[in-house]
Amino acid sequence: MNARAIAGSSSVRPAGGVAAVELVVMCVVAVGLTVGSLFQKLQCAGEGLDLAYVTRHACLGDTLSLWGIRDLASHVFPYVGPLTTRGLPPGTLEYPTLTGLWAWLSALPVGSSRGFLVVTALTFVPVVVVVTVLLARMAGRRAWIFAATPPLFLYALYNWDLLTVVCTTAGVFAAVRWPAGRAPVWRAVVVGALFGLGGAFKLYPLAFVAPFVLALLVDAGPSWPNRVRRAAGAVAGALGVVLAANLPFVLVNATSWFSVIRFQGTRDIDPSTLSVWYWALQPWSAQSSPEVQLRLNLLSTAATAVAVLAVLAVGLVIGLRRGRMPWIETSAALLCAYLVTNKVDSLQYVLWLTPFFAVVRIRLGWVVAYVTANLLLFVGWFHSFALKAVGVSARTWADEAQTIGIWGQIVLLPILAVVFLRSRAVDRDADRPGPDPRPGAAAGLRARGTALPARE
User: How far apart are CA 386 and CA 398, in angstroms?
Assistant: First the structure.
């Protein structure tokens, strides 16, 4: 199968690329924002800082707070020890195993939170460069959306979400830039494995396997047995990585491994979750009773499942009509649906969207609107805590900014889901036409020298 045929199960168009000098500048800017994020977080790495200080400087984050709370300083191997009073084993983060291992390895050479932040930042520098280069190769100058916008500065060192961002970006890149002459079934395995790797850091990239598999089954060109073989390869790649990252821990101590899932499943929906379920259902949702929390959790879980399935169904219908499913656009829309219906929509989740803001050609106004809403939420959320910490009980500008930011995201996410589905992803194969249902169209295209999908 040739390069044009392999490039896309998605409706893709070229980005034009960037010059080498511009790419270097792009990488330097991205690394600079990552280093800036480090210095911003280091403000909170001192001893004896009170809540008013750390919230006024907006320098808290999981990379800092979990150093002490989760006993990272003790260098205990995570996920296998006995449960503590906090419900997790010593040294264990409330994240999937690969994130916990990354944090454990980053903590090994140091003995302080400052050192831990520095080591984490150093490990993230190549991650940021890889994301920037891959996005630039796929989306050209739209890669600046990742490399030079506030989310990277605000959240690069907020926690470990950059690890899932690089896996998502690499998965999309492998799908649309698979080398010519290489077996398409291995393309499916590699893409599935990369999304599975992302899921082993944080679960959400696993969801992208579904639209990719549907695209492999729906897209016109290959024979049906080859479609099934590739779809099975993608699923096997994803499951293989997830099992490799989790099964050893399950075999050693299943109870300790499962404690992370239990921890997240029983998390209360409160103001810190920043989700529609708390803010739209007050005052009922503000109750902390177990019965209310159970109903909120069931409601958010059911709504998330319905929203995700609805997006997949719409993407599938589009794919059946076109003969080629827009799986990248569907993945972006699926992520938006998940964020708006999930029980948690943390500040840094905007990072998850940045690769799709780059590779899907939506208008930049939508990107600016969402990033602005997130910035308002960031500023309002931290400063609201800071003002309350010094005794301010009246409603302030920070509360207003937080409210505008939260509702801005809640309103924009479903709109963005529709916008993504109506847009086109970017890729190099601008001239590759979609399937033409007219009799003799394939022969006509071959006569003009246009490459068509080949059979294995």
Answer: 9
User: Which three-class secondary structure state does DSSP give residue 13?
Assistant: strand
pLDDT lower than 50: segments of the chain: 1-16, 428-456
b (16+ CB within 10 A) / e for 84-117:
eeeebbbbbbbbbbbbbbbbbebbeebeebbbbb
Are residues 156 and 128 in contact, defined by beta-carbon separation less than 8 angstroms? yes
Per DSSP, what are the bridge partners of residue 360?
425
The residue among 108, 162, 84 whose CA lies nearest residue 92 is: 84
pLDDT number for residue 427: 57
- Helix or strand (DSSP H, E) at 9: none
Which 8-state DSSP code applies to residue 141? G
Using alpha carbons, select from 90, 85, 87 the residue that is nearest to residue 70.
90
Q: Which of 70, 114, 116 is nearest to 91 (CA)?
A: 70
Tokens at 255, concatenated: 């109870």
pLDDT in tens, 386-407: 999 888 988 999 999 999 999 9
The string of pLDDT tens digits covering residues 20-49 is 999 999 999 999 999 999 999 999 987 778
Strands 12-13 and 425-426: parallel
* Distance separating alpha carbons of residues 124 and 162, to the nearest angstrom: 7
Measured on CA atoms in the order 7, 320, 360, 423, is the torsion positive or negative? Answer: positive
Q: Where are the alpha helices (DSSP H) in 86-208?
A: 97-107, 113-139, 144-147, 150-155, 162-176, 184-201
DSSP for 22-53, written as a single string: HHHHHHHHHHHHHHHHHHHHHTT-SSS--HHH
d(CA 278, CA 274): 7
- CB crowding 122-144: b at 16 or more within 10 Å, else e: eebbebbbbbbbbbbbbbbbbbb
**Residue 50 in tokens:** 């009170």
Distances (CA, A) of 375 to 401, 405, 412: 9, 7, 14
Q: How far apart are CA 177 and CA 6, in angstroms?
A: 8
Residue 352: which of 99, 131, 36 has the closest Cα? 131
Question: The whole model's pTM is what?
Answer: 0.89
Rg, Å, the chain Cα set: 23
Confirm if 203 and 307 have CB atoms less than 8 A apart.
Answer: no
